[in-house]
Amino acid sequence: MEEVRCPMCGKPNPADLDVCRFCEARLRPVWDPESPASSEPSTGDEDLPDWLRSLGTPDPKGSEAEPAAEELWEDQSGESDAESADFTLDAGDWLSRIGVDAPPHSTEDVPPPTYEYQIEEPDDGFEWRVPEDEDLPDWLKRAEIEQPDWLKRTESTGPAADVPVAADLPEWLIEPTALPQAPGAETVGDADSEPQAEESGAQEQPTGLEAEFDSLPDLLAEPEAFTDLPEWLAGAAELSQTEVGAADSSGAPGSPDFQADLPDWITSDAATQDAPDLEFRETPADIPSQLESIGAPSVESPAKTDAAADDDLAAWLSALEADDDAVGDVILSKADETEAEGDLSWLSELEAAQTGLDLVADDAADALSVEGAFDDAPAPSGLPGWLGQAAAEAETPEKPPEAADDLGVAELPSWLQAMRPLGATEFAPHASAPTGEDQVEGAGPLAGLRGVLPAEPDITRIEKTAADIVRLQISDAQEVQVKLLSEMIELEAQSPTVIPRSTTATGAALRLAVSLLLLVSLLVAIFTGLPAYRLPLPPAEVVHAVQLIESLPAGAPALVIVDYEPGYSAEMDPLTRSVVVHLIQRGLVPVFVSTLPTGPMQIQRLVTAVRADDGQPLESGRHYTNLGYLPGGALGMANFAAAPRSAFVLDGSEVPALQPVDSLDDFAVAIVATESPERARGWVEQTRFRLGDRPLMMLTSAQAEPLVRPYYDSAPAQVAALVGGLRGAVAYEINTGQVSTAAGSWSPYNLGLILATIFMVLGGVVSWMGSRITGRREQQAVKGASGRNE
Amino acid sequence: MKTDLGSVILSAVAVVSGVIVLLGAFLPISPLAELRALLLDWAMILTAVAGVVGVVYLLGLHWSRLRQGQKGAAGSAAMLAAFAITLAVIFLSGGPVGGGSLWLYNHVLVPIESSLTALLAVTLIIAFSRMFARKLSLPRLIFAVVVVFVLITAVALPAIDIWGLRDLRAWLVNVWAVAGARGILLGIALGAAAAGLRILFGAERPYGR
């Protein structure tokens, strides 16, 4: 059972099916020439010209011509199956109807050469239909076109033998066995006689395509009759007109006459340059050189009565083949599957050739690429543009793939080129996506078709290559500047390295020397009292403090806060002791408290050194009260200031001194002895507003005095009296007439100050001079090193 | 956002306590004052307990260092021995003001700390002398001149008692030094106020996770 290939999916299907059993595409056209409905003339076409109208409606009478037309295309096996046509020609394709009604031309009893073509089924979905006689234009019906052999696919009794060969046609266009005849041969009538020809054509001329081809030479002899001809066919007529006279019997392809008959695009010498060497199964000897370079399909002619003629015709056909793989499809085989294609299967085969040539174009080695063949190829006379381009491609040298597109490379301005990233976005088309004719559309209504314009733009298939890094295009100078800037920024983040100086030996010796000098000097001054220094004059604040204590009532409790560390005992003990002694002498009862853990012991140290008026040691509870350690720091100060009696575990009733004390202002005075500015500030802040009009007195070290003085100098003064350092202690003792225990420390104190000043000045001068000497030596060393290097 | 319930409770306690103490200091409301006093008592107790905990932690640290033989184990051993002896003496003396405690304080603690303070004086002298070993600049020169001037004028020598020198010294101390001290005190006060407000508003949480 014969099979037909589906135009959509390309799979074989039985010939009797209307739709494909795989993809359900129609195998038979909607409009069937053989159907009764299709035989009816179309309506509504009255306004159309006759030739156009005739194209739209199949001529029922043409059914008789179909067998004749089919006979033209019978293969060597003699099988013909016009009814198994699996394609229909579009109504507007007049070319397919050439020779439908052409009378058979008479030729010698020479069986036409047969060719076996290897057909590649066209997958473009075109449907070819053998037109009826009614569809053909009048001029074409009347034309007695001699069927050229390359249009025929018949066997022995081909119409080529009967079709009269136009004398004006080039021999390569006509059947080799059919020699050009005299102009007096049967010719095609003029336009005026179209009706007559039309009438006679149906009677006298062979039916179908054969008749068309029989009258073709005559038709070409009268180009004025072919006003409707396209340009490429009219050119053929003009060319034929110039070739008057008997054709050279030896019109071989190599003869001059043959050369003259050839169109320019074939006779061009460039066709012989850089043409790929294609394989020929059978290389005719008389193939023109320019056509030989094109290549030839695999041609098998089992029965060639005229090998030379067959070679001529096949040569230029074989030029369309690019190589064994692709262009071999150009030659259509007249196998069984081609029978159903009808008389106009040669067009489908040419279409396949186009497809094959497109495939070839993808190969860089193919010089017969037909890409753009339809765009730029000049239409040689008598041939479609794409076919002419095939020859032109053979003439031109092989173009690089990038040059396939006629668009030249754009020249970017320099500023735009600088902005272009380097090697970053090298977009590559999708590797797996086929291109060109191999591309099968996968979306849209054209899904499954090949060679169609893609529904999606190419931009969607762009994918970025791997390991692409966006890099800016910068010049060398810019790169240098970038490096310099980066180095500058890095230097800013780096800390300056200080060259360490080896001071361990000199530092230890210096400390030792200073320590020994000070120690010896102070010991001498302590034991000898020399040199004797004048006692200081009492400063104003010391006098004020003395006056303050003198003004306090006798027997009143006096709060004494001892908050200095044991290390400052040498400075603070004489001062605190002198004040405490003054309080005792005035009859006040000191109540001691401390916020330091060592405070109770410090307090005890103080009271142990003090004697009462009778020279007896002070008794706790009678002469003084030691409340002990007050924890919490500032919190303790605040808590004690708020409720002095509740701050201690001791029951106030057991301490007679605290019995009249319910609040902080019940104390006659509050005296704070500390070396720390922070503790001094804390006591001032926590107790000042609790004391009311009770005075607050500060006993500080020399280092804390500047920080406490603002409280003393403020108005109103928050600190009523301020006594600081050893100078204050000595002055206080002098003013109170006490036995000066602080005076014994005054000479060593002054001597220590003098020695410290001397050591500081001398040490500074020596260090400065040493640094200058060392720097000069280093500079000399650097200069010497640089001089040696130079 | 995950909220820690413990952090919320700690923040609430801190804020409420701070507000009560602050208001109790300004508002003469008896219940508020009593509540403030109560909270301050609790704070004092917690401070004392924190001191004890610190001492115990320090003992444990030195004990572990001694057991593991780490670097400074000898010092840890001396520290532990001194602690033990002092604790024993104080317990035996009947308190911190007992005879033994006072002897340790007068003959050990005071001399040692006094010696360290004296070394500070020598270190300051050496540091001053080395100040000019580097690049001599105007601030350094001014500083050196002022230090030497104050020290010299502090000495009670007849030759130094020149008219104007003591007044100049008094002007330097009472004006320039006090001005700097005032600035320091103002900064301290402002910083303390800001820190307190941050704790009251919960912006700073030095107490929890």
Layout: helices, strands, pairs:
The complex is a heterodimer of chains A (790) and B (209).
Chain A: E1 3-5, E2 12-14, H1 36-39, H2 50-56, H3 62-72, H4 138-142, H5 194-203, H6 208-221, H7 231-242, H8 256-261, H9 264-267, H10 289-292, H11 307-318, H12 336-339, H13 345-362, H14 373-376, H15 385-395, H16 414-419, H17 476-493, H18 504-528, H19 540-550, E3 557-563, H20 569-586, E4 589-594, H21 599-609, E5 625-629, H22 634-642, E6 669-674, H23 677-691, E7 696-700, H24 705-713, E8 721-724, H25 725-736, H26 746-789
Parallel strand pairs in A: 3-4, 3-6, 4-5, 6-7, 7-8
Antiparallel strand pairs in A: 1-2
Chain B: H1 5-26, H2 30-68, H3 73-93, H4 99-130, H5 138-154, H6 165-201
Q: Can you give a write-up of this model?
A:
The complex is a heterodimer of chains A (790) and B (209). Chain A is mainly alpha-helical. In chain A, 38% of the residues lie in helices and 5% in strands. Chain A has helices at residues 36-39, 50-56, 62-72, 138-142, 194-203, 208-221, 231-242, 256-261, 264-267, 289-292, 307-318, 336-339, 345-362, 373-376, 385-395, 414-419, 476-493, 504-528, 540-550, 569-586, 599-609, 634-642, 677-691, 705-713, 725-736, 746-789; strands at 3-5, 12-14, 557-563, 589-594, 625-629, 669-674, 696-700, 721-724. In chain A, the strands form 2 sheets. In chain A, strands 5-4-3-6-7-8 form a 6-stranded parallel sheet, sandwiched between helices. In chain A, helix 3 (62-72) crosses helix 6 (208-221), helix 6 crosses helix 7 (231-242) and helix 22 runs parallel beside helix 23 (677-691). The longest helix of chain A is centred in the C-terminal third of the chain and has 44 residues, at 746-789. About 19% of the residues of chain A have low confidence. Chain B is mainly alpha-helical and 209 residues long. At the A-B interface, helix 18, helix 21, strand 5, helix 22 and helix 24 of A face helix 2, helix 4, helix 5 and helix 6 of B.
